[in-house]
Design goal:
about 40% helix, single chain, alpha/beta, 11 helices
Length: about 375
């Protein structure tokens, strides 16, 4: 995981490997901005979430998790001592002029910070436009290595997901000949480079690779190539609905009994959409699953469903990351925090705290019908 050190903030390592910065530069910047506003104004966060296109399947869970964190923060002291207000911005790849929309909000002094997720190509456009003027807490899994000023990337990185997962599957004799399939942008391309090195280190080989445009719909040529390659494993680096459609096609082709699948970005909403009949031998490596058995996750789920009801959007790693991101921002800018040792709330652990080192845990889960069964932790 990377957290911004270029901003000049002091960083302190948290329980999950998250650095919890001191207020430093951002409080100075935000105090200057607040002075020009009316007394007692809300702290305004641009909540970045995809609401359309292949990534739109993640949107409802992202919004719900962020709103739970907003409610919790506002019950305490808000952010920087001010009530927190959310302004939702659609950061899907199909949304028109995402960076222009956010740039105008920053230029006009309409927001104080950004929290949320988008695919990495959209993140790069946003970062170029914002230029480190406000903190941007980027919450979801990504390829790693973005050291842009003002960016706090708190999610899992591809190396931490792929390297141990590929080794684990290879050690058990389940994967030797790999095909790599992904959407055509930075996250899959970097991830596949990492996967190639991990596969080679584990004694395997990559026998085929395909990068596909978003929304291709027809995967028959990819399935034919997969069959012809005689691969016994496929890494799926696809986004949202595209991953759903590919896995449905994979299941209809009857490949799931002899070819295992590994993904770093299939969550509970997608698993439901793929269909129980298409999920055999589907492994996923992520930092959070709703099925995690821990006191922290049980408490998180109780708060979540108490707040939104039983018909709330499905809990998952991508949505939960926005919950963490909101609390991270509160810790970044807060004079005091309700969690001991300047930590921030997480569904994976009760808090990320500075006294103990360690990295964000990665869990490997196996799909079991419409649910995930967590089988090991790295």
């Amino acid at each position: 995981m990377h957290l911004d050190a270029a901003s000049g903030s002091a960083l302190r390592v948290g329980l999950l490997g998250h650095a919890v910065p001191t207020r430093g530069r951002w409080r100075t910047v935000l105090d200057r901005g607040t002075a020009s506003r009316r007394a007692g104004s809300d702290f305004r966060v641009a909540l970045c979430a995809p609401l359309r296109g292949p990534e739109g399947i993640w949107g409802p869970s992202c919004l719900a998790s962020a709103r739970l964190a907003q409610a919790e923060l506002n019950r305490w002291s808000g952010i920087a001592g001010r009530p927190c207000e959310l302004s939702v911005v659609d950061t899907s790849d199909e949304a028109p002029d995402v960076e222009g929309t956010l740039g105008s909000l920053v230029d006009d002094g309409e927001i104080d910070a950004l929290v949320g997720m988008c695919i990495s190509s959209v993140r790069q456009r946003i970062v170029r436009t914002i230029g480190g003027r406000l903190p941007f807490v980027y919450t979801c899994l990504y390829e790693g290595g973005d050291h842009s000023p003002g960016l706090y990337a708190i999610g899992e990185t591809a190396a931490r997901q792929l390297t141990p997962s590929i080794a684990w599957l290879s050690e058990r004799g389940q994967a030797r000949r790999w095909m790599l399939v992904g959407n055509d942008y930075v996250w899959p391309r970097v991830s596949h480079g990492i996967a190639r090195r991990s596969i080679a280190a584990s004694g395997g080989e990559v026998v085929a690779e395909s990068f596909l445009p978003f929304g291709i719909g027809d995967y028959s040529q990819v399935i034919d190539r997969l069959r012809a390659s005689r691969a016994d494993a496929v890494l799926i680096s696809m986004v949202g609905q595209d991953a759903v459609d590919f896995n449905r096609a994979f299941g209809r082709a009857g490949l799931q009994q002899r070819v295992l699948r590994l993904s770093c970005a299939i969550e509970e909403n997608q698993l439901l959409a793929i269909g129980a009949e298409n999920t055999d031998n589907l492994y996923v490596a992520m930092g959070y699953f709703a099925a995690l058995e821990s006191d922290a996750n049980s408490a998180f789920k109780e708060r979540y469903y108490s707040h939104f009801g039983d018909r709330a959007p499905a809990l998952n790693s991508i949505g939960q990351s926005l919950y963490e991101g909101m609390h991270f921002l509160g810790a970044l800018l807060g004079d005091r925090c309700p969690i001991p040792a300047r930590g921030y709330a997480s569904a994976r652990h009760a808090a990320c705290r500075e006294e103990r080192g360690g990295e964000t845990p990665i869990y490997l889960a196996l799909a079991d019908g419409h649910a995930f069964h967590v089988i090991t932790q790295f």
